[in-house]
Design a protein that fits this description.
The protein is mainly alpha-helical. Helices cover about 70% and strands about 0% of the residues. Helix 1 (about 1-15) crosses helix 3 (about 50-60) and helix 2 (about 25-40) crosses helix 3. It is globular.
């Protein structure tokens, strides 16, 4: 549950503060995803909160053209996520 909560928390913070209005943010998101890939490759004991934030970055990157996302759709996407799902998604980026 902490994994899902941290991903959702990251998304709420991003959209509530309307960071999508700044094009520079998407460069930062791309860098964050690179950091996530490195983090996964170098760590055997992964922090659930870090993985959640990584997945939040992925969702933002995937939806970067949208200024208004459907919260219900996002909840459906992340509610059954596992650590393995996130690791595989990040590795395959």
């Amino acid at each position: 549950m902490n994994l899902i909560a941290s991903a959702f928390e990251y998304l709420v913070y991003f959209y509530k503060n309307e960071f999508y209005n700044y094009s520079e943010v998407y460069k930062i998101i791309e860098e964050n995803i690179k950091v996530c890939k490195t983090y996964i490759e170098e760590n055997k004991r992964l922090n659930i909160y870090e993985l959640g934030r990584c997945y939040g970055n992925i969702i933002i990157h995937k939806n970067k053209q949208l200024t208004n996302i459907n919260t219900k759709d996002i909840i459906e996407e992340i509610k059954n996520l596992s650590e393995k799902d996130i690791i595989n998604t990040i590795k395959n980026l």
